[in-house]
C-alpha cells in the first residue's frame, strides 16, 4: 500500500516530480564537490528517500510525504540555512515591532511556539457574551505547490530587507552586512565577502541566496531504485523547509 501511494504521488500529473536519469553517484559527487569548498558537505551520505505517513484524522485518509533527509548530501547545508533564515525572520520581526508603533500596521505573522498563541488568546478582548470565535485553516498541499521562481524572489526580498535593517541599526550599508554562523548561533556582522572556516561561516547576502537556490534546485528523492527531481515545491523533511515555507 505504501509503495502504491508513493508511486501515485511521484507520478502525479502536476509536474512536481520528474524521473532523473543521472546516476546517484554522479549527483552525490556533484553535491560533494560544490559544498566541500564551503565546508558544508556531508561526507559518506546519499540521496534522501521518500516515505508516506497517513493522516488518519482526515476522511478519507490523507497523506503526508516526508523526505528522509537527515543524512543526505545537502543536510549540513540545510541546517546552516535553517539557522540563518530563522535569524532573518527574527530580524524582520524586530523591525515590525519597531514600525508598528508608528504605522499601526502589523506585517509579521509568523509564530515559533504555541506559547505565543496562547499568550495572545489570553489577552484577547472577549465579546460581551463572553464567547470567543476561533477559526483555523490548513494548507493541504502547500509544500509541493510552491513555485521555485516565486520562492527565490520572496527569499531575496525578505533577506534584502533584513540585511538593510540590520545595517541601519549598526550604521552600516546593508550591502556590507553579513550573517555569521558559529554552531547554531547567528549574528549580524560587517562583511564584504563570505568566509568558510571550521570554526564557523560568514554569509553575504549574495551567497546566502545562491545557496538557497542550490539547495532548492538540487532536491532529489529516491523511491526504490528510481531517482526523482522535485521541480515544484520543497520537501518536508529537510531542516530549512519550514522556514523557507514561512
Tally the helices. Answer: 7
Q: Quick one: biggest sheet? A: 4 strands, antiparallel
> In angstroms, what is the radius of gyration?
21 Å
* Average pLDDT over all residues: 90
Structural class: alpha+beta
Cross-sheet strand order for the largest sheet: 5-4-7-6
Number of strands: 9
- Point out poorly predicted stretches: none
Portion in helices: 40-55%
Give me the strand/helix succession.
HEHEEHHHEEEEHEEH
C-alpha end-to-end distance:
32 Å
Shape: flat
Strand content: 15-25%
What topology emerges from the helices and strands here?
Layout: H1 2-10, E1 17-19, H2 24-36, E2 49-55, E3 62-68, H3 75-103, H4 114-123, H5 148-170, E4 177-182, E5 185-190, E6 195-197, E7 200-204, H6 205-217, E8 220-223, E9 226-230, H7 241-245
Antiparallel strand pairs: 1-9, 2-3, 4-5, 4-7, 6-7, 8-9
Write a short abstract of this structure.
The protein is of the alpha+beta class.
Considering the chains and any ligands shown, give keywords for the structure.
19% strand; four-stranded antiparallel beta sheet; 246 residues; 7 helices; alpha+beta
